[in-house]
Amino acid sequence: MFRLSNGKDDEVDARSEMLNLIRSRKEGYSLPQPFYVDQEFFDLDLELIWYRDWLFAGHDCELLKAGSYFTLQVGSYPVVVLRDREGQIRAFHNSCRHRGSRVCTSVRGTTAKLVCPYHQWTYNLDGSLAFARQMGEDFDPSQHSLKPVACESVAGYIFICLANEPADFAPFRELMQPYFAPHNLKDAKIAFESTIVEKGNWKLVWENNRECYHCAGSHPELCKTYSESPNVTGVSGGGEDPEMADHWARCEAAGLPAKFQIHDSGQFRAIRAPLLREAESYTMSGKRAVTRPLSDAVQAERIGALMLFNYPTTWNHVLVDHAVTFRVMPIGPNETAVTTKWLVHKDAVEGVDYNLDELTHVWTQTNDQDRRIVEENAFGIRSPAYEPGPYSQVHEGGVIQFVDWYARFVETRLGGSGQSHIRRVA
């Protein structure tokens, strides 16, 4: 791509070019090449979306006691998430207020205080500076606390926001809480976790996720239990489908919210969808992978999968016996980390209540298949011959909705801002 000289001219050129391409794009088609491969467009994605929106970080159950923490990297920002001595979950910029070194260098751990390994500046779990050796009489520790990151917990999920003025979290909480509360994920445990790096842009990861047009030819394990219906992957609501309507009625009679609901912005949505035939779980047999239900409060059978999608970081499947959660994290214009966690009842015992291979097999295979799909897609998009192609209006409605959401958010944020509220689709 043509670029002006480095510096502000270069940045202005990238912003202008992104806006022009968004405004001239053909709806119902994939995006122009720079959105998938260009470093400056990737940097703008970080600025306009990843540094401004609420991002799924992890689960409450990963922070079992005071001093438990985990770390993550969001673009240029290292972040630490922890539980303090009062039981509150907090997040901080993982950068020492002395000379900027990372304070927590492990992926996870437990500590009484946060100690920077460089010069041993020591922080309490509320982020306040507890110790800094020989800094002089004029030094004020209260002015050198760790910088906080906005942090919210809902239904066992932890979200963070890097913006100085975060968007209102309440609309998402309002949508998510009723669906997830019965599953009691706060009291679950992580049975297994994996992270794979897909050599493709984060938007390609999402586009692939938002359709099952490719499933029959790519996901033999998943297709034993997961429906390829556009009513599941799309955003039509699915209420006109008798099977979907019957499933919703059965779940809601058992006290489980089920109907499709989407925020007006299109950024997040939830639905409880049936699995194929008599399946209860994502296993090769369709039978439960875990004999102990995920939640003591949910004893109904054939509740299908509760699915939550929240751009740009997470999609989720909650079943009667376990949950599978996914976190997307961009690394570069052509690299994306996808972290998958399998959650089970906190008292479920491996080898007694579940076999780990059986629990993880379907999504381990599916993730690797999707990785190859995304990487081949990315490889082809880098060709000079690439041009945007049409999405299937029947099977790729979810992809169209994702791309429309992305384009709308980028265009708005390059020139303004706006907020929306929740609506229910029957």
From TrEMBL:
It comes from the Bacteria. Its cofactor is Fe cation. Pfam families: Rieske, Ring_hydroxyl_A. SUPFAM superfamilies: Bet v1-like, ISP domain. GO terms for molecular function: 2 iron, 2 sulfur cluster binding; iron ion binding; oxidoreductase activity. The keyword Iron-sulfur applies. Residues 54-160 form the Rieske domain. Keywords: 2Fe-2S, Iron, Iron-sulfur, Metal-binding, Oxidoreductase. The keyword Oxidoreductase applies. PANTHER family: CHOLINE MONOOXYGENASE, CHLOROPLASTIC. This is GbcA protein.
